[in-house]
Fold this sequence. Notes:
The complex is a heterodimer of chains A (147) and B (114).
Chain A: E1 10-17, H1 20-37, H2 41-62, E2 70-78, E3 81-87, H3 114-121, E4 124-129, E5 135-142
Antiparallel strand pairs in A: 1-2, 2-3, 3-5, 4-5
Helix pairs in contact in A: 1-2, 2-3
Chain B: E1 3-10, E2 13-22, H1 26-40, E3 45-56, H2 58-73, E4 77-81, H3 85-93, E5 101-103, H4 106-112
Parallel strand pairs in B: 2-3, 3-4, 4-5
Antiparallel strand pairs in B: 1-2
Helix pairs in contact in B: 1-2
Amino acid sequence: MAEHDRVAAQTVEELLESSLESVDQAEDTVLRLATAMGFDEDDMHRIGIAVRECMVNAVVHGNRYHSRKKVHLTVSRNGERLEILVGDEGGSFDASKIPDPLAEENLLRQSGRGLLMMRAFMDEFQVRPREPLGTEVRMVKYLAKAG
Amino acid sequence: MSVKMTTRQVGDVTVVDAVGRITLGDGASTFRDTIRDLAAGGKKKLLLNLAEVSYIDSSGIGEMVSGFTTVTNQGGQVKLLNLTKRVKDLLQITKLYTVFEVFEDEAAAVRSFS
């Protein structure tokens, strides 16, 4: 039996403040679950960056540091699958309106690379409206595809 | 841990040794202020040694690009030295590996400025 098969399925939900400290907290929570699944160091790093980028978007661009708005984090591990949901309470978000950071004319822009990094580092990536308000990002990493 | 940046002069090249994480918050702002101060002080040949940088996020990448643009617009040059595999991966994913000149040998990097 593989090591990850012995790790019990688990879901953790956290309601986080709209602050940069929450970025660290979310990364810690996700990596704690990922560690037990057996991801290697490089993939832990990739997952960590994806979570941080996602949390920064939720705190800074979604909730705009608003003290009454929260970030909703749900992390689930099941077998070889790690799923991360990050929801904010901000306005709607249209990912297609973000300029392509890989286009020649955008290479030297200071911002706009967060979504690219999340897509590159995770196996599945989806941005969708969150009910009743805000935006939710869903990211999945599979142990079998790691590396 | 944020980033700690120290500078040393090798001929007319300013080598900036960065240690730690360049991420949104203290890390990115320390990085930005260091490059901005060097540019304001007339330093036009900057070599960023990233050997001890374990982690850069999109904000850190943004500050690197911004520093590059600022110094280049003033007629200077910014080059990179000793990238870790992770930082190199990031620069490849973001296509910035084609923008920055990257070196693995400090002496060769310093010579390249002249």
